[in-house]
Amino acid sequence: MGKYKQDMLQLQGELWKNLARVEKELCWMRKLGDIATKDYKSQLTEKIQNLCIQQNHCDLTAGLT
User: Fold this and answer.
1) Contacts of 40 (CB under 8 A, 6+ apart)
2) Which pLDDT belongs to residue 51?
3) Domain residues of the chain, as ranges?
């Protein structure tokens, strides 16, 4: 059953988990370190945009259509 979910529900897999982690970090800013806040926010925003682009490239699977 896990293999089926992984194949049919691609957007709920690793891409979604990574996107959620980056969005949480954008809110919490825990790993800021020595980087300027503005630069760190722009890095996280760029990561979010890249992950959204990756999600948009996923086609609907046969199970969803």
Assistant:
1) 29, 32
2) 95
3) 2-56
